[in-house]
Description:
Elements (H helix, E strand, L loop, with lengths): L5 E5 L6 H15 L6 E5 L5 H8 L4 E5 L16 H6 L4 E4 L2 H7 L3 H13 L3 E6 L3 H5 L3 H12 L12 E4 L13 H18 L2 H6 L1 E5 L7 H5 L6 E4 L6 H8 L6
Parallel strand pairs: 1-2, 1-8, 2-3, 3-4, 4-5, 5-6, 6-7, 7-8
The protein binds 1,3-dihydroxyacetonephosphate.
The site of 1,3-dihydroxyacetonephosphate has 14 residues, from strand 8.
Amino acid sequence: xxxxxxxxxxxxxxxxxxxxxxxxxxxxxxxxxxxxxxxxxxxxxxxxxxxxxxxxxxxxxxxxxxxxxxxxxxxxxxxxxxxxxxxxxxxxxxxxxxxxxxxxxxxxxxxxxxxxxxxxxxxxxxxxxxxxxxxxxxxxxxxxxxxxxxxxxxxxxxxxxxxxxxxxxxxxxxxxxxxxxxxxxxxxxxxxxxxxxxxxxxxxxxxxxxxxxxxxxxxxxxxxxxxxxxxxxxxxxxxxxxxxxxxxxxxxxx
Length: 254
Ligand code: 13P
């Protein structure tokens, strides 16, 4: 089954509102003719509203990088899924390794966030991935299995119909060390097999699994050539509109 690719940019803690808007003005024409894949940009929370207006009518969707699981309440410094839906967010990145490792997010918190995002009809992008230590200890598949099963515990295939999973090996994030297409394919095939066991084969076949970790224009074609790699979640290389447009246009640079 052919899945529609998704190329997503995660800006992390980069760009002011004005920088975000200047980027979008430069980026939109570079990808305006791309219709056979989905494109997403995830700016910081404070730039979401302005970016949504700037992206309106374009083929670029808006994503957020995180959210709380409650709709409102005494949670100083947090942003709720209700607020994200209100400004027109389509995708929400959840369980990114930086959230897990730097801010103590647990699998259970990630699961609650997925529930919150679904409650507001947004699309969760569940990030999973092993550290270098875990890979070297031979624990990669066990870590992926735990993060996937705990994060998706209790949901039905119907509830998760638009779910996106992102495999991001922690050792490949921001390090310039991309997983080889073979390493990524092995992890993606494993994730798809798990999804098939947890839900059913049709669900596994239609669910998009993105790769993230030092994706660049130079390695996107090799990654996308693998059968279970359905797109990319791009950090550093999404910060420049020309570079990110080259990644979005993989295989069709004309
Ligand atoms: P880099 O592309 O900078 O390695 O970051 C990947 C990532 O964490 C995307 O979410």
